[in-house]
Design a protein that fits this description.
Elements lengths: L2 H19 L2 E2 L6 E5 L5 E3 L4 E5 L8 E5 L2 E4 L2 E6 L10 E5 L3 H8 L13 E3 L2 E6 L2 E4 L11 E6 L5 E5 L2 E2 L2 E2 L4 E7 L9 E5 L4 E5 L5
Parallel strand pairs: 2-6
Antiparallel strand pairs: 1-2, 3-4, 4-5, 6-7, 7-8, 8-18, 9-10, 10-11, 11-15, 12-13, 12-16, 13-14, 16-17, 17-18
């Protein structure tokens, strides 16, 4: 088999895998399941995972969306809908081998390229976590003082990360770290993010602000 033939076969196989996986069901939840061998061409939007379907003659390259369960490598994304959730899923759960890999998948293209809220707090303002340190990019200096980001670790007190126009960096602690947000005009948004460093799960939901 020539190199071109092998490449064409690989592309065709990937395309067929993507198309076939759209018909699968997740054995745990029973929801529609999409699986991809690599996370390279997939990212999390506010209401779905978008992924690339390679070109396969005569079909050109296209994009697919997953709103039930999406899996790539050891990353698993599950969307929870309720009758009341309407446009925004009631919850989004992202799990991986560790929380940092889940975070890396969530924040692909972070900043102006990724409007996934609540991490995208307001225009050109977003939450960052680097080496376990929670921060906000320096555009917050031009932001409304109404924006709020707080963190509560392992059931402790709620501490400010962004409040009244000032930023206080905080460390992610081992265990359960809960974030609460008051965001700007960024469209429908969850207001809570939970990072569990033990289970490798990051979850977004909507709750009453503490």
């Amino acid at each position: 088999m020539t190199f071109c033939s092998r490449r064409a076969l690989a592309v065709l196989t990937a395309a067929l895998t993507a198309l076939a996986s759209a018909q699968q069901r997740d054995p745990t939840s029973g929801k529609p399941l999409v699986t991809m061998p690599s996370c390279k061409d997939a990212y999390l939007s506010g209401i779905f995972v978008q992924y690339r379907i390679p070109a396969s003659f005569p079909r050109p390259e296209s994009k697919g969306t997953a709103t039930g369960v999406f899996r790539c490598e050891d990353v698993r994304v599950e969307f929870f809908q309720t009758p009341e959730s309407n446009y925004l899923p009631a919850r989004i759960r992202v799990s991986a081998g560790n929380w940092m890999k889940a975070w890396a998948f969530i924040t692909k293209g972070n900043g102006e390229k990724n409007y996934f809220s609540p991490l995208y707090i307001d225009t050109a303002i977003w939450l960052t976590i680097v080496n376990g340190l929670v921060n906000v990019n320096d555009k917050y200096k031009d932001a409304s003082r109404q924006l709020v980001v707080g963190i509560k670790s392992n059931g402790g007190a709620l501490r400010p990360v962004l409040f009244d126009g000032a930023v206080t960096p905080r460390k992610i602690l081992p265990g359960v770290n809960e974030f609460f947000f008051v965001v700007g005009n960024v469209g429908p948004s969850h207001n809570k993010m939970t990072i569990n460093t033990t289970t490798g799960v990051i979850e977004f939901s909507t709750v009453k602000f503490p």
